[in-house]
């Protein structure tokens, strides 16, 4: 009895997870959020040295040219629905993700973390682009080279979770 209940719960959670991404063939609802042209800046991370036992040296995670092992992803997010929504967070499996906005203060570009997320009004397009909003990828563990692709998961307040394939290319 107990294992049947567990199985039922498991199936239900799988079904719900599938619905969330809009991937379930039986799902009739289409996400009002469309994501176009996702891309990210390349980042070169120095080859990891090991001591023979798989432990990292101090240089691990640092980049050539001392630019920091960060990248940023950009895209257009279109809210085709009639409800306002909000991009609240994101994740990748190789870095820490934060939502940022670059702004110019006294001639100096500064990045600010959008801790409340970024609103996308009904019918509007949110453009993430260099010099503006971006998905910051902090502490990238492996180099992102031009031509690479990676999965970025974005969480919206109403539309739920969406995963997009991001192309790595030069700005
Ligand atoms: Cu940033």
Condensed summary:
It is built from one helix and ten strands. The chain is mainly beta and 171 residues long.
Q: Runs with pLDDT <50, length 5+?
A: 18-27, 50-67
How much β-strand is present in the residues? 35-45%
CATH architecture of the largest domain: Sandwich
CATH superfamily of the largest domain: PCu(A)C copper chaperone
User: What helical percentage do the residues reach?
Assistant: 10-25%
Mean pLDDT: 82
Number of domains: 2
* Shape, principal axes of CA atoms: globular
Distinct compounds present: copper (II) ion
Number of helical regions: 1
What is the radius of gyration? Answer: 19 Å
Describe this structure in words.
Strands 1, 2, 3, 4, 5, 6, 7, 8, 9 and 10 form a 10-stranded mixed sheet that branches. The protein folds into 2 domains: 1-30; 31-168, PCu(A)C copper chaperone (Immunoglobulin-like). The chain is built from 1 helix and 10 strands. By secondary structure, it is mainly beta. Bound molecules: copper (II) ion (CU).
